[in-house]
From TrEMBL:
It is found in: Cytoplasm. PANTHER family: HTH-TYPE TRANSCRIPTIONAL REGULATOR CUER, REDOX-CYCLING DRUG-SENSING TRANSCRIPTIONAL ACTIVATOR SOXR. It comes from the Bacteria. This is HTH-type transcriptional regulator CueR. Gene3D superfamilies: 1.10.1660.10. Homodimer. The keyword Chloroplast does not apply. The gene is cueR.
Length: 138
């Protein structure tokens, strides 16, 4: 298969496939004498794994580890499960951070009159200062 065939089968762009190859995340394909890449079914499996792993939040380095595990017949499913649960915990922590950020933004918006005046508690808070009526920073 050529790269355009692989792109169609995996839902990745040719550019993304070349990027993952360049970064050493997937097994490099064989090349013909003229330099064209030739892909096997194994490459499709690796790239599908990679695409799906990226969609659920695994980093590029974590994807490299997953592809390595995929290619290791002596792997243990416990290792894959541990990585997956760790990623789920990281995502849960990130969600908590995002909720806290949203709550803070809503607090800031609530404190702002949102009118035509130049005085804005949001800007003042983010800048770490407050503006006085005489226009001087305090």
């Amino acid at each position: 298969m050529n790269i355009s065939d692989v792109a169609k089968k995996t839902g990745l762009t040719s550019k993304a496939i070349r990027f993952y190859e360049e970064k050493g995340v997937v097994t490099p394909p064989s090349r013909s004498d003229n330099g064209y890449r030739h892909y096997a079914a194994h490459h499709i499996d690796e790239l599908n794994l990679l695409r799906q792993a990226r969609q659920v939040g695994f980093t590029l380095e974590e994807c490299r580890e997953l592809v390595t595990l995929f290619n290791d017949p002596a792997r243990h499913s416990a290792d894959v499960k541990a990585r997956t649960l760790q990623k789920a915990d990281e995502i849960a922590a990130h969600i908590e951070e995002l909720h806290a950020m949203r709550a803070r933004l809503l607090e800031l918006a609530e404190a702002c009159p949102g009118d035509d005046s130049a005085e804005c508690p949001i800007i003042n808070h983010l800048a770490g200062c407050c503006h006085h009526a005489d226009g001087k920073r305090g």
